[in-house]
Amino acid sequence: MLSLGLAACHGGDGDDLDKFMRNAANDMRPKIKPLPEVKPYLALQYNADGTLSDPFRARKAANKSSGLHPNLNRPKEPMEAYPLESIKYVGLLSKSKLTYALLKTPDNGVQQVKLGNYVGQNFGMVTQITDSEVVLKEIVQDDLSGDWIERVSNLALQE
Fold it and tell me: Taking the mean position of all CA atoms in its chain, how far away is CA 36?
């Protein structure tokens, strides 16, 4: 009886697990992404006619005929120590007809600014404070001509 039981258990085909183990490697394919295409390097030529500005040449002196230039003699305000990109507008306060914007500095401090205060490293003066943004008028030096020009920047409310 024992030999009959052992003979019945020994099958040549095996069970489902054996079949799976034999066939598992057949479906495996390595999934390797193709290498990205290498773009050729194009060198820029710096021309004597000035079509491209030389990054190693000093900027031209500002044109004195242009009336626009920053006041370099005034004392710096605390918010001028931080780049504008690192400052976040986080809130608004109103006290007795004055509106203050709450600006968060990179060192996690919060400063109040009002109209006429300076913010950022490009001589940015606060010109408007709304519920959604602080508008600044910056004075920056043009790379090509060296003249001082105005540009408008803003800090959007961070929610």
Answer: 25
Are the beta carbons of 82 and 92 closer than 8 angstroms?
no
Q: Please give the distance of CA 98 from its chain centroid, rounded to a whole number.
A: 32
Q: How far apart are CA 114 and CA 77, in angstroms?
A: 12
142: which residues sit within 8 A by CB, 6+ positions away?
148, 149
CA distance 58 to 159: 42
Nearest to 44 by CA among 35, 33, 36, 55: 55
Query: Is the separation of the CB atoms in 77 and 114 below 8 Å?
Result: no
Domains present along the chain, CATH in parentheses: 78-156 (2.30.30.830)
Bridge-based pairing state of the strands 110-113 and 88-95:
unpaired
114: Cα within 13 Å, side-chain hemisphere? 8
Question: At which residue do the structure tokens 């800090």 appear?
Answer: 155
Question: What pTM value is reported for the model?
Answer: 0.58
Given a contact cutoff of 8 angstroms between Cβ atoms, the answer to whether 82 and 105 are in contact is yes
Residues 51-97 have pLDDT tens digits of 555 566 655 554 555 577 888 888 999 999 999 999 999 999 988 88
Element (H, E) at 23: helix 16-23
